[in-house]
Design brief:
Blueprint (H helix, E strand, L loop, with lengths): L1 H24 L3 E8 L1 E17 L2 E5 L4 E6 L6 E2 L4 E5 L2 H51 L4 H47 L2 E3 L4 E6 L6 E2 L7 E6 L4 E9 L11 E6 L2 E20 L2 E11 L10 E18 L29 H16 L3 H21 L8 H19 L2 H12 L7 E8 L2 E12 L3 E6 L6 E9 L2
Antiparallel strand pairs: 1-19, 2-11, 2-15, 3-10, 4-6, 4-9, 5-8, 6-7, 8-10, 11-14, 12-13, 12-15, 13-14, 15-18, 16-17, 17-18
Amino acid sequence: MARWLFILLVAAAVSAGGYYYWRQQTQTALDVQTAPVKRADIRRIVSTSGTVRALVTVEIGSQLSGKIGELNVDFSSRVKQGDVLARIEPSTFETKVREEEAAVLVARANVDLQEAGVGRVEANLHKAVLDLHRAKELVGRGVTSQAALDTATAAEQSGTADLAIAKAQVENAKATLQQRQAMLDSARIELERTFIRSPIDGVVIERSVESGQTVAASLSAPKLFTIANDLSQVQIEAQVDEADIGQVAAGNDVTFTVAAFPEEKFQGKVEQIRLAPVSLQNVVTYTVVIAADNASGHLLPGMTANVDIVSGEHSNVLAIPSEALRFQPRGPAEALVRDSTATGSSSTSSPSDRTERMLDKLKADLGLTEEDVDKVRAGVEAEFDAIKNASPSGIPMSQEDAREQARMRVSKVLRTVLGDAQYKKFEELQRAGPGAKQTGTVFIYQGGRLVPRQIRLGLADANATEVTEGLKEGDQVVLRVREIAP
């Protein structure tokens, strides 16, 4: 039994070896698909949706309660400022005005009556004064008694008091007249408010009342009409996700479509970014207000617009297909990979070359002296030596970790060498633009080999990505590698 088992195992091994040999002999060829680095226009788009609204929308209500007696407009009616849209049945308010007019007449007559009373009291006082003088002369000559003089004095004093009372009554009557006049003005204002007028030029986009309907204005004014101002200009309130809002800025160009006119593209501009967040089911968005021209009148309030915000645009720049950044050699393609540093290719450079390029850039951007450059060079080289010595044996460091550690050590050197103003400017340059520091790796098909290139990336859209450093026009970047049967 063991013998047969041994024979079966040997046969299986021979079969596997034969299959492997046959596979090697018939191994499929590799088709390397590439695309050239070429110049193109890159447009970064933020897509979202929003609602079309009029620039100015006014809701018109009533401050009075009553029945709608007249209704002069309907949906889509165009109105001018001051036009009467409707009127509340005015009979009650007209009656109130007539009552107050009569009350004003009564008050004015009372003023006249009180002023006439002042004249009578003044005449009586004048007589009392004359009687007092006469009584004093007679008492002085001994013709009349002291009692007569006292009576004349009392009459004069009483007349003076009566005059003061009469004048006070005149002032009271005048105040009553002013009160009645104010009540008349109030009644007339309420009568005027029975006219529901348009405060702006525009078009009626909503009517919430019918003729004969009773309007009840108790705690708040009921909405009767909604009027939109000039619809030749509209705005779109679009919701942009928090992940994309950093790419949007006031003044960005916008294109959008609506379902009613799917073939027509409308143009607009970002006018405002509202800072208040909108949270719905744990999704945070921000409202972006887009101004758009509507000379054709096709855009109506309430339409849903599918919006593309152009958050960045670079013309005639070097670009590669974005899928080249996603390519990684796997399987048989790994055999084609060549380390570019081993062949002396110019696609990558040694640490010293990178250091010199960095120093040249710092010198230009920060205005460093040759002495400063020498100090930075010495410090950077010392830090890179420290990285090599500190790296634990047998545990290779990832490219990302190595870059981050190198960046931190370079910042440490610059903080020591540069002045405060220069280092602050360096930090600002580091933060300038989210795409300025982005890097990636692509593969160049060169001499039958796949050569990796570290590149610096710029703007990207749905299909292409800008390359700011690391490639030249005409280079062939690898998109994919596939096997081809012989």
